[in-house]
Amino acid sequence: MRLLHVYSGNLFGGIESLLLTLTRYRSARELDAEVALCFDGRLARELEAAGVRVHRLGEVRVSRPQTIHRARRALSDLIARERFDSVVCHAAWPYAIFAGAVRRAAVPLVFWAHDAAAGRHWSERWARRTTPDLIVANSHFTAATLSALFDTARADVIYAPVAAPARATAAERAGIRRELQTPADAVVIAQASRLEPWKGHHVLLAALAKLRRRSEWVCWIVGGPQRAEERRYAETLAGLADRLGIADRVRFAGERNDAARIVAGADVLCQPNVRPEPFGIALVEALASGRPVVTSAFGGAIEIVDESCGRLVPPGDSASLAGVLESLIRDASLRGSLSDAAPARARLLCDPATQMRRLQECLGSVAAPGTV
Predict the structure, then answer these.
(1) What residue ranges do the domains of the chain occupy?
(2) What is the DSSP annotation of 181-194?
(3) Can you give the pLDDT at residue 29?
(4) List of the chain residues with pLDDT < 50
């Protein structure tokens, strides 16, 4: 089965990580995947470095309708020339822009839903104009919101495949800590995510400020600004750490292409979202590397984290978060038991071979006859 994944490509986060994983396994289970992007950037570079064929559709600005028409023509020409068996549009923005062109090409159209739908954003209103042949939802939480977009489309929940990394050796962990100026015996609380306020960095800093009398911990904030508003947010976080009196114990690691390696050098991943996470690939990646996860008890995160591998806290409650983090800082045996169970939890949910097989079966149900 020959697939074309369609996406914007201008930023880097969970969807981009998923596309890299999907195309890394593109020959597995007979899913031959290529990617069409509107923007050049880190995603395009990493896909091409992995040997994936990337098609450029041209930059799209909704404020400039001619760019939309040009990109739609480019996709239509690509589909006519290359004869894909299914086209998968990832998230509402690409689906809004390109669903009509795919439908006119008479190729099976799939919408991969990565965010909870509210039906109010312009991209969602445009998306409603074209019903897909199939929806792939990244979590049951996301799937439950899809009636805001489509009344009749079938939706299958498929968790993102997440490959288990090689376990970091003691020497590698020590090297990461030296790189981030962190004592070898510190208990490292890491957050690795996009620099967006809803990810709850400020809640984490407020919780750690309540623990400043405990000398054992250091915090790593992994992720850098990709847009102007994220640069302002990064400055706000640095100022907050200073005002809370913990700036000397917080390391802002910036944007990294080795975030998984950095997290492997930590002891706990903490992401206290103040808005529901649709799924949480970063949470699964941390579990796969043997890191316990602390996150907020709503959204897709509650489908990932249970008592065997981490802890859930009330959203926005820095006092409760401080209590959970203090227990993990204080109790090495608890951290150890959660770490030991974490990889099995990640495999149960997101084993690549299992998830790619499920994806093949799902997409095969709408692909053109004779392709599966």
Answers:
(1) 2-161+352-364, 170-350
(2) T--TT-EEEEEES-
(3) 52
(4) 372
Burial tier of 98 (Cβ tally within 10 Å: 0-12, 13-18, 19+)? buried
pLDDT of 52: 94
CATH of domain 2-161+352-364: 3.40.50.2000
- Residues 306 and 301: their CA atoms lie apart, in Å, by 9
Q: 170-350 is classed in which CATH architecture?
A: 3-Layer(aba) Sandwich (3.40)
Dump the DSSP string for 228-297: HHHHHHHHHHHHHHHHTT-GGGEEEEES-S-HHHHHHTSSEEEE--SS--SS-HHHHHHHHTT--EEEES
Q: What is the DSSP string of 116-152?
A: ---S-SHHHHHHTTS--SEEEESSHHHHTTGGGT-SS
Closest CA to 75 of 42, 34, 43: 34
pLDDT confidence of residue 95: 98
Long-range contacts of 209-213 (CB under 8 A, 24+ apart): 209/244, 209/245, 209/246, 210/318, 210/319, 210/322, 211/322, 211/325, 211/326, 211/329, 212/244, 212/245, 212/246, 212/249
Tokens of 323: 């209590």
CB 171 within 8 A of CB 179: no
- pLDDT recorded at residue 31: 79
- Chain-centre distance for alpha carbon 31: 21
The structure tokens 């930059």 sit at 59
Strand partners, 189: 219, 268
Q: In this predicted structure, what is the pLDDT of residue 166?
A: 80
Tokens 């489509």, located at residue: 150
Same fold, 2-161+352-364 and 170-350: yes
Could you give the CA distance from residue 289 to residue 50 in angstroms, rounded to a whole number? Answer: 22
